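Example 213, ligand iron/sulfur cluster.
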Amino acid sequence: MENLKEKRRRAKQIFEKLDPLYTKEKTALKYRTPFQLLIATILSAQCTDKQVNEVTKSLFKKYKTPQDYLAAPISQLEEDIRPTGFFRNKAKSIKGCCQGLVDLYNGEIPSSMEEMLKLPGVGRKTANCVLGAAFDIPGVVVDTHVKRLSMRLGLTQNRDPDKIEKDIEKLLPAERWRRFSDLLIYHGREVCKARKPDHIHCAIFKLCPSNSI
Ligand code: SF4
């Protein structure tokens, strides 16, 4: 059974193998402000970043502040975000979140996890994403890829995203948390796919206990 020190060493090696392979420019969601990132993150559920970027190109020109989203009829907002899928739920989430921003924080993005989590529809994944981009607050973003890869890589025994977040935080220094999440996301999309992980072409094959699943 691997102890914490060994697991940390392996996490460091995984980081260093993957880091040069995935350039930062590949960070897929496009945004200029933390508020835009918040909206893009809500839209990205069950949708590719490419498709989200297509939609936000015109969306961000039309809606600039939380108040703009609140002023629009929900049917109009649904139409504007329709190509991202699940548009009714997403429109509702955007409205709820914008209402929270206006009611609780004067329309500004708050700077702590605790405050972010008070916004309707905002979970730790979205909060970590936005806090990292807006305020450089380190955090592990656990999406479906990070969850799958950290389990396959034996970096966690947990299935619950909040617990996985804590497990990964123990393995790497804070300044690497965000980048490590991004690396697992890219690697999950390109190589270690959910249905058919490409072990043979995997750069971290030797560091992975699941290299023959
Ligand atoms: S060896 Fe296979 S399971 Fe492990 S990270 Fe690579 S692709 Fe995924």
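Summary: The chain has two domains: 4-26+139-207, 34-135.
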